[in-house]
Specification:
With 219 residues, the protein is mainly alpha-helical. It is built from ten helices and four strands. It has a two-stranded parallel ribbon with strand order 1-2. Helix 1 packs parallel to helix 8. The longest helix has 22 residues. The chain is globular, with a radius of gyration of 18 Å.
Length: 219
Amino acid sequence: MEGGIINGNVDATTSNNSEALREELNRFMQRALHRNDISIVVKKCSGYKEAAKQFINATDKENNYLYVDLDRKPELRNEWFKSLSDDGIEMPQDKTNHVSFWIQEMEAWFLKQPEAIERWAEDENLTRKKGQDSPLSEHPSIKNKDIEHLQQKASYLMGVILRQVFAPQEKGRKSASGKVRDLKYGKLRHAPGIIAHLNPIDLISKDNELKSFCEKVQK
């Protein structure tokens, strides 16, 4: 999977958060497959190019699948393969059927299931800002929106929602200008906790890529 970091010169917190992301994705996929006879191992591969290279070079192709950000609208998925080819990375035709995408980013899962964000916020003891009492599903950034065709990146909208709706735990923490800092979304810092609250059955009904992935693995 695209995501996390490869061992390198990083601080302990970043390394721990990266490992937490891998572990939660692993647990989520196990819940999504809902099969005790299938054991899935999630391997973190940093960016999509590195993930693609490792997937292409994997020897046991029947049991390997690639999951990456599409970074474009669903009808443009062929452009993703072309972008790899333009960078000199050729995906064998027999492996393309084992590639699944977050459309357009992994955070689209969260926007499709905003109640998971709310449950995570409760875990984190975050408080809602004044006047922000409505369910996150009512937030104008995502209400009645086709998540896979949003003009802004899902990660950007996650940042907007968290900043506008929730107050950070450290209320006294201020910037150099003296203003109280807003809550800022960070994939490695926040995504693992939100993934833990995703309901795979509900999400599969809203995400064709995840549905297709599970069907392929279960065959």
